[in-house]
């Protein structure tokens, strides 16, 4: 089977060759037709009519070639992302399952003291939590596509909700509470809890996974008189190149080669953030930090704050 890179190269080469041949045909046809029209003046009108019709069809063919090239590139990129997703999900499933199996076999075959048993139970709970997060990400992405989640609006306290999300993420990664700093007004929101938590938790999750050493994450929430809420998640990671800032919000997108990557994930986190923000009528963007290296993910949600 041809690799994706080679398939893409063949598609581009084929499209370029077809375009060159068609352009050559058009030029040759024009020269021949003009020469024929000059040689046979009574039939000049027919020549020019056929030339116009033929040129129109050839332009349509050229447009078709361009569309074919664009669709081919899009399909190959999608297949590449799906392959990366399959690799990452396989790894994310296999690792905790293997760990659970080893723990259970050890508990079954050996007599352990209560302290050792507690360590094994803690390890197994962590593996189960890891599987739970993976499955929830996949389910959330599917529900967002179908718009079957986040239909129930309720009154929420912004600061309390952000603190709750921070606590969940800190427990998941077993990091000190000082890792995440929070700045937010004590105000009320009218929003679906599930969608709002998806946005915040996935942005925090992304900031911790790709942050520096030691990891530092800052959550900043601000409101405006027109009831717009803006949430900024600031990390101290390596940053994101400008040309990749739109790409990272795509489904299954993870930068680099999946099998050579050390960071866990499925490429669905930022896709979930963008989809959830869009469903709430908002948007998300990313830019560099001004004070030092790092990224700032900024989510803007209109008509969210209760005045």
How would you describe this structure to a colleague?
There is one protein chain. Helices cover 58% and strands 12% of the residues. It is an alpha+beta fold. It folds into 2 domains: 4-81; 154-301, 2-Layer Sandwich (Heat Shock Protein 90), CATH 3.30.565.10. The longest helix is centred in the first third of the chain and has 66 residues, at 44-109. The protein is elongated and about 100 Å long. Mean pLDDT is 79; it is low at 257-261.
What proportion strand? 5-15%
* H and E string: HHHEHEEHEEHEE
Low-confidence stretches: 257-261
| Relevant CATH superfamily of the largest domain | Histidine kinase-like ATPase, C-terminal domain
The CATH class of the largest domain is identified as Alpha Beta
Please give a handful of descriptors for the protein shown.
307 residues, alpha+beta, Heat Shock Protein 90, 2 domains, five-stranded mixed sheet, 6 helices, 7 strands, elongated
């Amino acid at each position: 089977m041809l690799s994706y890179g080679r398939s893409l190269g063949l598609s581009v080469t084929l499209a370029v060759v077809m375009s060159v041949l068609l352009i050559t045909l058009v030029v040759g046809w024009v020269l021949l037709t003009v020469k024929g029209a000059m040689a046979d003046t009574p039939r000049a009108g027919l020549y020019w009519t056929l030339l116009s019709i033929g040129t129109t069809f050839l332009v349509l063919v050229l447009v078709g070639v361009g569309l074919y090239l664009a669709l081919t590139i899009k399909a190959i990129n999608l297949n590449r992302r799906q392959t990366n997703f399959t690799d990452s999900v396989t790894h994310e499933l296999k690792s905790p399952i293997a760990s659970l199996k080893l723990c259970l076999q050890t508990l079954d075959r050996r007599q352990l003291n209560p302290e050792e048993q507690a360590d094994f139970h803690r390890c197994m709970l962590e593996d189960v939590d890891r599987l739970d997060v993976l499955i929830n990400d996949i389910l959330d992405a599917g529900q967002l596509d179908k718009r079957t989640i986040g239909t129930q609006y309720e009154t929420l306290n912004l600061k309390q909700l952000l603190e709750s999300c921070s606590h969940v993420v800190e427990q998941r990664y077993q990091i000190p509470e000082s890792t995440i700093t929070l700045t937010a007004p004590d105000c009320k929101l009218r929003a679906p809890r599930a969608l709002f938590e998806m946005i915040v938790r996935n942005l925090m999750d992304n900031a911790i996974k790709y942050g520096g050493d030691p990891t530092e994450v800052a959550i900043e929430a601000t409101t405006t008189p027109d009831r717009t809420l803006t949430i900024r998640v600031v990390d101290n990671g390596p940053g994101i190149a400008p040309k990749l800032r739109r790409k990272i919000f795509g489904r299954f997108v993870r930068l680099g080669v999946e099998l050579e990557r050390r960071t866990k994930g499925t490429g669905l986190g930022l896709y979930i953030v963008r989809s959830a923000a869009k469903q709430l009528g908002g948007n998300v963007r990313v830019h560099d930090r001004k004070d030092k290296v790092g990224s700032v993910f900024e989510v803007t949600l209109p008509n969210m704050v209760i005045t």
